[in-house]
Sequence to fold (244 residues):
Amino acid sequence: MNTLLTIAERKEANYQLLVDAIDGYLVPYGKGLKKEANRYLTRDLLQIKKQLTAEELTEVSERFCREYCDENKFQELFIRCSGRLPFQLNKWIWPYLHDASLHQMMPQMRWMVQIYGFCYYPFNNDEIDMRQLLECAYAHPACDATTVKLYFELILDDLYWSAHHIPDYCLINKADFDDLVAKAKQVSDHHPIDPKMMDDLRYYITLYNCFFDYEAADRQIPFAELCQKEGISFDTPTVVYYDE
Fold:
């Protein structure tokens, strides 16, 4: 019993090293001393890496990812940069999530997407495709509600950006649109989806169908009129074109 307690205490002490490093970063950062905060964090994370074994680093990284992504225990850190971790911490955690993702572990694949998103990071030497990783996480037997939400949001985001220049033109063709809608319906047929997100999906389906009808009519019918007929509002965006 004492041995187990000693192991537990050791694990807690190891994790406290990371918590202290994060606190040591947030205090000067909150005072506007960003360079100093980054310098402290770089120093402390390097020291932790030297002090702990590979197994201990994995345990600390896993616990942090779980508390950060699933338990909302680092709200000040989350708010500091709109959900993006400091670069040094991102780089420090990367080896753990990278290896776990290559082995298709869950929820690590989902954590990878939550923490790194779809941004470029110079230490992503293998150029892991986060979109493919999220699709893999969704197809995994251990897929959870958060993964479903992230995957559905990705589909909606694709529909949003691809409609950015409607009615002048659309960034995806009809086949790509049908594929996105099929994916969205597959998700909603098997999982509960937030009603607001379903409303967004229905809006985009109607908007795109109006655009394809607009194209089929050789743009002879006002696009806004087609939208109004289908019961959705659409304000034609102001677009400025420059001659080269």
Remarks:
- The radius of gyration is 23 Å.
- DSSP finds eleven helices and no strands in the chain.
- The mean pLDDT is 91.
- The longest helix spans residues 2-30.
